[in-house]
Input
Amino acid sequence: MKVKGFLKDVGGASRVTKMRQELIANGSPVPDPKDPIRELADLLHPGKQQFTVTEIRKASPTSTTYRFSPVNGHVPVFQSGQYVNFYLTVGDSVLTRAYSISSAPYEARLAEPFFEVTIRHNVHYLVPDWFLENVKVGAEITAAMPFGQFLYEPLRDSDHIVGIAGGSGITPFASMAKEIAHGKLDIDLTVIYGSVRHTDIVCGDELEAARKAAPDKIHIIHVMSDDDDWDGEKGFVTKEIIEKYASKYAGWSKDDPANGPSFFFCGPPAMFFLIDKNMKEMGVPMKRFRHDATAQPAVKLIPGFPMDQVGKSYKITVMRGIHEDVIDAAADEPVAVALERAAIPIDTHCRGGECGYCRTQLLEGDIFVSPLNDGRRAMDKELGWFHACSAYPTSDLKIKIPII
Ligand SMILES: Cc1cc2nc3c(=O)[nH]c(=O)nc-3n(C[C@H](O)[C@H](O)[C@H](O)COP(=O)(O)OP(=O)(O)OC[C@H]3O[C@@H](n4cnc5c(N)ncnc54)[C@H](O)[C@@H]3O)c2cc1C
Ligand code: FES
Output
């Protein structure tokens, strides 16, 4: 019986193999441009696209909103909370930078579709300064989108989100608020937004317009850390403030902390440490707390960082296909930054160790991987792969990266 079954299997397999060989022989050598699956995939994930800047406006005295319209085609489908990745040449550096989309998804489906980002320039930053100086209406820029998991997921999240934001971390919530106000996202949103002074509030007018359009669904609480002219909440965004407004608007209760709203945090790393502590003290379960940081923490804030390395520099031998370059790298900057400074393209997206786009192979030498941003798979750790955005050289290195 077994032999008969085996022979039947072999017969079947050889027939299938023959059929496949015939299909391959008769098939087109180029992908069918009319393939509906391919068309859908291109629609959702078109890869790099060209966009034209069609509007620039102030979002606060120290932040600017840039509107982008597609040169050809469309704005890919995205959800509030996701980000776009820009591919830039700034001076001698070749860079990528992520920006959360501050416009609403429905605005990307209008007859004249667009998406917007809001960039903060409260101090001198490399890329925001470059945008201010170089990006005018009519400029073309290369970008890819959408990326990121900082979004409302009905199977996972409560239908009331308490969004906690600092600085430019408000932008994903601005997108959510607009989508809710337009009736396209059926959730409630309470935003607790920390700024230093009221003049630092980013997207303040747009948040207020959305709140007025849906006053039962959107609540905005501003908290100023250093503003004598402010009549509302003052100080940092503390556990007490979060509890107060999460109870008032989102039904959060100390007696049942696991079944309240979902908490979403977006902001600078220093604020994340405080909010993370608050969440633990409030008993919010991990599945109800989502977070996105807008920057890497300074090395002095990274647990275990070898501070005796600060000020040192190393050589990195970079293998890319047939190319081999030797570049300089500061010990207190991630390997990705050394590559960018040397104009060697590396595809960074989240810059937080999570997405894996900057996955790099370590061939020789030693690195320090930030435990705060170590998103490597177990097998990658075993085999010497690391994420260049969150690893620092502690000796001369030899690495291998893909050509992009
Ligand atoms: C998912 C995500 C969403 C974000 N959303 C927003 C948003 O909505 N709005 C917003 O304003 N920001 C947002 N950010 C932050 C944004 O991507 C930029 O980091 C921010 O605008 C600061 O710009 P910068 O990185 O050039 O700043 P800098 O602090 O000036 O530079 C960052 C690093 O670049 C390195 N560097 C310095 N000089 C050079 C050089 N010549 N070549 C190469 N590297 C150099 C340094 O190591 C420095 O630490 C987001 C970030 C992420 C990850
Ligand atoms: S850019 Fe996402 S892991 Fe490095």
